[in-house]
Amino acid sequence: MKKRILFVEDEPLLLELYVMMLEGEHDRWDITTASNGRQALQLMEHSAFDVVVSDLNMPEMNGIELLTAVRTRHPGTSRIILSGLQDQQEVARCLGATHQFLAKPFEVRTLTATLARVSGLDTYLNDKRVQALIGRIGTLPSFPSLYIKIIEELDSGSSSVESIAAIVAKDPGMTAKMLQIVNSAAVGLARKVGSPFEAIQFLGVSTVRSLVLSAHIFSCFDRSRLKSFSIDQLWAHSFRTGTLARRILQLEQKDSAEAEEAYTAGMLHDAGKLMLAHSMPDQFRKALALAGERQIPLHDAELEVFGATHAGAAAYLLGLWGLPAPIVEAVAFHHTPGLSDLRTCGPLTAVHVANVLEQELSRSAPDRKLSPIDENYLAAIGIQDRLELWRAQAPKFLNDQGDE
Questions:
Q1: Quick one: DSSP state of residue 51?
Q2: The listed CATH number (3.30.930.10, 3.20.10.10, 3.40.50.2300, 3.40.50.800) that belongs to domain 3-126
């Protein structure tokens, strides 16, 4: 079935260009255009679209305003922003409104790959088994307002370590949780950190930004109901996985935005375990027992017990939050990268590998079989020969994390 794409751009020549770029894709895409945000919203009131692709800088209603409205009125529609600005602050500012950022100028294959990628992820998140599992979970964590405030401060043009720390300090609960996390053994800092300012100095703004997302999710669940596993051990695994994922992409000389997306995805990749253990503790314990008895990976046991996995549950939540597609994709497929449409080394590859390498090093699940690294997937994207280097470097990456 063809996907319906709506391009929104105030420059007529660019609209014509986008249509021309996809002329050879009539069997895959049905293209509609709009010259401004208001026209786009009117079209969407009468017709359903799978993807909206909007320019960022438009008069009257800019791309972020448009896609924010689309997110509210048509939450099932995937959202892509186009802009000539490539710095990370601009990407971060779009975070709540868009699934994917595409920098101008771009090639036809980049556009078609992005459309296919977002559509494929959307299909995964709309899988009836994932949706049925989410329906059984009940109330989902809300998007943290503190994160939005940090993004707004970064976008102000006058942000500093002091100003970001001041925002964090206004939330005593988050401050306490962040300091607990930063001073945990997983982070491995040389001395105890006593304030948000020190935490940001040691870890950097991008790391603290991801910590806010992760700490918010962890704080939403009652520890007394999480008896199936150690929440501290889960946190340590998540932090170390994020650290390894970021360092793998840095080693591969990927750009900083991709490396930070990998870090965030690594921090959040197992959030679905919290969601399942908290909402359905008896069934989650059953899945854990099944994994141990049969010596199979936990996500295989979850498929039998729940019909879907913790990866699907977490990806659905992050998709609702509007996090960028590479982050949601890395979480969704961190056990099964071959099921994604992505065939380049990026956040998904890094989180998939880092998740396994961290468990190999920590031996955090000795009672069941670890999910293996998909070497066929690595071979398909031409990087299988890099695996042993990553494995050899992993202990150093984790030992050095407190010195970054």
A1: E
A2: 3.40.50.2300
275 contacts 313 by C-beta, under 8 angstroms? yes
Please, what CATH class does the domain formed by 135-403 belong to? mainly alpha
CA distance 256 to 249: 9
Confidence (pTM): 0.75
CB atoms within 10 A of CB 271: 26
Domain ranges of the chain: 3-126, 135-403
pLDDT tens, residue by residue, 305-364? 999 999 999 998 888 776 778 899 999 999 999 998 888 899 999 999 999 999 999 876
Cα 162 from Cα 318, distance rounded (Å) = 29
Q: How many residues does the chain have?
A: 404
Position 279: which residue type?
Answer: S
> For the segment 285-304, what is each residue's pLDDT rounded down to a tens digit?
999 999 989 999 999 999 99
